[in-house]
Amino acid sequence: MIALILFAASMTAAAYFDFRKMKREGSQRRELIVCALMCSAELAAAAWYFTSAHRQSVMALLLELFKITW
Amino acid sequence: MMRTGNNAPEANNNIGGGISPDNGKISMRQTMIMYIVACLSPATRVFPIMGSKYGRHAGWVAVLVGAAALAALSYVFASFFKKGESGPRCLSDVFERVFGKLGGKTVIAAYFLWAALLYTFYIRYYAERMLATIFITADMRFFLLTMMALVFVAVRGRLEVFARFSEISVLLFTVIMLALAICLMPTFEIQNVWPVTYLDAVPILKATFTMLGTFGYLTFFFFLGEQISNKRDAGRLGRKGALYLGLMLTLVTVICIGTLSYRVAANMPTPFFSTTKLITIMQPLDRLEALLLSEWVISDFIIITAFAFILMNIGKKLFNLKHARYLATPVAFFGFVGGILIASSRFELEAFSDSTLAVAINTAMSFGAPVLTLIIGKLRRVI
């Protein structure tokens, strides 16, 4: 949980300063939304990893998919 | 922050992407060097295993065949960018010209996904290697965190600084590799790698196929095309780069097979590391594998940061952003999350590396797609 809080705090801080800079440089709303969505998705993935008990890795899913298709 | 000539203030406004035509660019030579150092980490790990497994005692010849294919691939890129400033500026532009707006975006999205997978794959492999070699009881997340902190700083900086770091690293790598090769001469047995006859042609080709994906990472570096100045020299410099990479990696593979024999090397997780453990110079001087490990960490840092820059540049085109550096924070943090989510153990990574479909996709993305694009582009007369 501490790792998650540290990760979320550092990411939010870095993203906040980035967004301030982007606004100062006159970025479009769409660009801000793209970056915000990416950051949110990563935060959600991190939260899921640190809190979930039964995790399936991406590699395991891909290997399973390869077995089906190959 | 480093300054470049009289245009330093403008250059500082263009950190990491959205570069103006006159500054903030790296040369084609620097790109090749960056690619070479980035390739060394996966190639040193994979080539001795794949060479031994499929090519048996002649596995080292497969590296030379792969290098020849790389030299040929570099001419494909030279054809893409032969028109200079009036032609496409990066590989994303090439795809959009050849396949149209929608088709181009689809191909770029496929490259984005595959590059993201490789990015997290190499981050995790770096941490797993540290655990497997020296820090057996350490927490993997510590290595992920330290590496990603470094990558975060690097991707927020300028590509030129990173390219210069690669130039220094390639010299270091050459010196260390040659020194290790000389030290391993007494344990090398020529009958383990010779004779190579025409009967070895099929095993050599099989081994080459597994290596092509790694050689073909050059393709991904052309997504940085907007920041590369003399792309027309891709053919000439690609040939030189292929020669250097071919010789260095043949040296690595031939030493592993010659020292351990192909039966042993094929079943080891890190054959080159195990080979360097055999070095003892007049009894007191041994444990030189630490040199190799430090070099591996540098190469890992370069491949991870290079893929981060590549992801940022593909993302810039895919999402129509003004600057690639807007994606620096999401991409760097994605490395940490992706590194822990990508696999639950080292065995999954190795299973993925050995998977025929993964090797085929890698080869198709790095070799097949550029060649196919060139053929279609020539037929449609857009290249």
Q: Percent range for helical residues of chain A?
A: over 70%
Overall pLDDT score of chain B: 86
Q: Looking at the structure, what is the overall shape of chain A?
A: flat
Q: What is the number of independent domains of chain A? A: 1
- Give the oligomeric state: heterodimer
Low-confidence stretches of chain A: none
Q: Report the major sheet of chain A.
A: none
Tell me the fraction of residues in β-strands of chain A, as a range.
under 5%
Q: How many individual helices of chain A? A: 3
Uncertain segments of chain B: 1-22
**Count of separate DSSP helical elements of chain B:** 15
Report on the structure:
Chain A is mainly α. Chain A has one domain (2-69). Helices cover 83% and strands 0% of the residues of chain A. Chain A has helices spanning 2-24, 29-51, 58-69. In chain A, helix 1 runs antiparallel to helix 2. The relative contact order of chain A is 0.12. The relative contact order of chain B is 0.21. Chain B has 383 residues and is an all-alpha fold. Chain B has a single domain (25-380), classed as Amino acid/polyamine transporter I, CATH 1.20.1740. The model of chain B is unreliable at 1-22 (pLDDT under 50). In chain B, a hairpin with a 3-residue loop joins strand 1 and strand 2 (285-286). A two-stranded antiparallel sheet of chain B has the order 1-2. Chain B has helices spanning 8-13, 28-55, 59-80, 91-133, 140-156, 159-183, 201-215, 218-221, 234-260, 262-266, 271-276, 289-318, 328-341, 346-354, 356-380, and strands at residues 280-281, 285-286. Chains A and B meet through helix 1, helix 2 and helix 3 of A and helix 13, helix 14 and helix 15 of B.
